[in-house]
Structure prediction request, 169 residues.
Amino acid sequence: MPSDLLRLSLAPTVSASVDRQSSQIGIRPLEAVDTAALAEVYFDSYPRGVAVDDVGAARKDIESTFCGDYGRLRLDASASAWRGNRLVGAVMVVERSIWDKHLDGPFIIELFVSPSSRRVGAGRALLQHAIATCVAAGDPALSLRFGEGTSSAAMKLYHDLGFITHPGS
Prediction:
C-alpha cells in the first residue's frame, strides 16, 4: 500500500527563504479570533464530503485545533494568508503528530486555500513560512499526510519544496 505521508528533512542547509512572488498575499499569525473566517475557508477549500459536512462542523474542527485536540499547536509555524482584508488560507502545524508517534519534528495538520485564491502563491507562502520557522527552531523534519481532496497542484508544490514520500507506520 503506498504511503500517504510526506516528510521534509530540515537540515540547516534547507532553503528557508520565503518567496515573495505574490504581493497579493500577506502572511499573518494564526489567531483564534479568526475562527469564523478560518471555518468558512476550510469548508470551502475541500470537495464536498471530504473534510466536514458544513460550516458548523468546520468551526468545531478549527476550535478543536486551537484547543489542542490534534496536538499542541505551533503558533510560530502556523499562519494565515490574506488578500487585503480577506482571510484566504491557513497552515496549521502541531509539535508532533498524534497519529504517527514514530515521526520526529512538527506535523502539518492542515493546509488549505480558498478556491478563489489558488494559483497566486498563498499555499507556497504558507508552507515556506512553516518551513522557515521550523528550520530556525532547529527542528529535524516537517511532515504531513495527504489524502482525498489533495489537488495535483498541492502535490506538485510539496514535491517542489522538497517533501518526499516517507514510509508509514
